[in-house]
Design brief:
about 625 residues; alpha/beta; ten-stranded mixed β-sheet; seven-stranded mixed β-sheet; flat
């Protein structure tokens, strides 16, 4: 129910056409609805901004006189107007904190609006804390009521968050709005108004998608809505929540009466247990003793819900038991549950919530799973009943189980009752009556269980039996007097349409079966081909493995041969080095001997020269 508190979707504009903005003080037009003004300007809409007061109250000591302070604020407002692109604002010059809700100011606003073609009037919320803001909001609401026509009021927030019904995406406008807010230096010096407003706009994106960084909140009302209920804008939180189906506590939720027609069967306790688990907070259980005598005793409570037993002392037909339950039901909403069927825990909450969200509807139903009980208790699901609602189809086929539905007691006031002349198909007859007063809402959920094989003998298993045919004829005998030729034509037309759809589905099923068979054959051929390819792949892998082994062996042989050749060359190199060393040694010896001989000869010659007989 969160979306009934605040929008979960944003808009890009509140509307098109000329707009008038009422600002109690210079800066409120930017802080409160600067984004909306930019949207109008970007769309080419004329925008007229009226600043009602001079804003001179509470001037800081360093700002000079009150007149100087007012002029400074007006300059700031004009500068902001140029940044936003709408031009210069008008200044009505009322004293700050001097705005009063009264005929004079209301008439001045009315005169401003009439004949101007204005489509939207922007004004502060009546929930604002500042008295000028509240009074101007009240003036604007009364002026819109008087002018009427297509005029709409859009209330904005500045100092107090309002209860919005529109959230305006201003993500792409933030830089321009920030620049316009920054112009009001006289105010930002005293308090970080710009930071507060940016935080408020950021907070307003709380319920929106991640792509929305900031939004402005508005409460938008038409002149007709204000004329119909002038006090709606001032409604208390309790009234506002109640009108939207948002009670402040569970005791203010509408009561739901669940009528259980009981034959005292063993399955009754399971049915009651499913009611005890309902998440809807306010339920009463009315058990109608249709057995007449020997019904098992019942407690006063079904879980946390009160339980009342209604007994006539005699056996009751299905129709009479249902009417006894209706007479005993106190709830705003009513539902039925036979003593061998079950409801999921969220069944009542889902259907009642849908009816509260769509107050023009008086009946809603959910999907029902049909299970085969069999001899050993509950079996598997054999069918799901969740067809779209069609009143013409309902005339020839009951496709809505009785416990699938929650309906408003207004249908009882309209004369809907169970026909006690019908032993079976009494629920079908009741739905036909209800369909004369309201369409049924099909809620997209599967939240109830029908256990086939009950005691009526005309359930899903017996729908084609002779007894079922006789009961249908009794029902048709009652209703044929109410169906004129056009109604019958529509009914048979719907039957033909459904039959044609069924035929087309069967043909489509056959085509699908044929296509499935072809696909299966193709798949089998593909599988055989895949198997053959897999065998070839395995053979190739084996051959590859053999070739790899041969390659490995050849590489090993070549490596060994290479090592041997390297060893041989190394041995030759070693031998050559040894031979070279021997030669070098022999050469060295011969060289030494020769040098020795030369030295000896030289000494001999030197000796002859130095001898006395030989001196020259």
């Amino acid at each position: 129910m969160e979306e009934r508190h605040v929008p979960y979707e944003c808009v890009q504009a509140l509307g098109r056409g000329p707009a008038v903005v009422l600002a109690p003080h210079p800066d409120d037009e930017v802080f409160g609805c600067g984004g909306a003004i930019l949207r109008h300007v970007d769309a080419g809409d004329p925008v007229r901004v009226i600043v009602v007061t001079d804003g001179a109250a509470e001037a800081p000591p360093d700002s000079g006189s009150a007149v100087d302070y007012a002029r400074e604020r007006q300059r700031e407002s004009r500068a902001a107007g140029r940044l936003l692109g709408y031009g210069d604002p008008e200044f009505w010059g009322l004293p700050d904190r001097g705005v009063r809700y009264g005929e004079w100011l209301v008439q001045r606003v009315v005169d401003t609006l009439r004949g101007s073609g204005t489509r939207l009037l922007y004004a502060p919320s009546v929930l604002e804390m500042h008295p000028d803001h509240r009074a101007l909001g009240m003036v604007a609401a009364e002026a819109v009521r008087r002018v009427g026509g297509e005029l709409r009021l859009a209330m904005y927030e500045v100092g107090v968050p309002l209860r919005p019904n529109r959230l305006l995406d201003v993500t792409d406008l933030l830089p321009r709005k920030r620049a316009a807010m920054a112009v009001f230096a006289s105010q930002i010096r005293q308090r970080d108004y710009q930071g507060h407003v940016e935080a408020l706009n950021r907070f307003r994106s709380y319920t929106l998608g991640p792509e929305v960084e900031a939004a402005e909140a508005y409460c938008v009302a038409t002149a007709a809505e204000i004329a119909k209920d002038p006090m709606a804008l001032y409604a208390s939180a309790a009234r506002w929540a109640a009108e939207r189906g948002l009670p402040l506590d569970e005791q203010t939720q509408p009561l739901v009466s669940v009528v259980v027609r009981s034959m005292g069967r063993a399955a009754l306790q399971e049915a009651l247990d499913s009611l005890a688990l309902q998440t809807y907070p306010r339920v009463e259980v009315v058990v109608v003793d249709a057995l007449g005598r020997g019904h098992p005793p019942l407690p006063e409570w079904c879980g946390r819900f009160p339980l009342r037993s209604v007994a006539a002392g005699v056996p009751l037909s299905r129709s009479r038991a249902a009417n006894r339950g209706l007479d005993a039901a106190n709830g705003t909403f009513i539902a039925f549950l036979d003593d061998d069927d079950l409801l999921d825990p969220d069944h009542l909450a889902g259907l009642v919530g849908h009816l509260q969200n769509h107050p023009s509807l008086r009946a809603a139903y959910a999907g029902v799973r049909v299970v085969d009980r069999g001899p050993e208790g509950q079996g598997g699901i054999v069918r799901v009943m969740h067809e779209p609602f069609n009143a013409h189809r309902l005339a020839y086929e009951n496709f809505i189980p009785i416990h699938a539905v929650v309906f408003h007691r207004d249908l009882l006031a309209a004369g809907c009752r169970f026909d006690e002349d019908l032993d079976v198909y009494e629920d079908w007859d009741f739905w036909l009556q209800a369909a004369c007063h309201t369409p049924f809402a099909r809620v997209d959920r599967l939240s109830a269980t029908y256990r086939s094989g009950g005691g009526s003998g005309v359930g899903l298993v017996h729908a084609r039996s002779a007894d079922a045919s006789a009961h249908r004829q009794r029902l048709y005998a009652k209703w044929r007097a109410r169906w004129d030729a056009s109604a019958l034509d529509a009914i048979f037309g719907e039957y033909r349409r459904v039959r044609q759809e069924s035929l087309e589905r069967e043909q489509a099923r056959q085509r699908l079966a044929e296509e499935t068979a072809r696909q299966r054959h193709a798949l089998e051929a593909q599988q055989r081909l895949h198997q053959a390819l897999a065998e070839q792949h395995r053979d190739l892998q084996d051959r590859s493995a053999g070739m790899q082994e041969q390659h490995r062996q050849e590489i090993d042989r070549l490596r060994q041969q290479h090592r041997q050749e390297i060893d041989a060359v190394a041995e030759q190199h070693r031998q050559a080095a040894a031979r070279l060393q021997q030669l070098e040694q022999a050469h060295s010896r011969r060289l030494v001997v020769r040098v020795y001989r030369l030295l000896r000869r030289g000494r001999q010659r030197l000796g002859r020269v130095r001898s006395p007989g030989g001196r020259r």
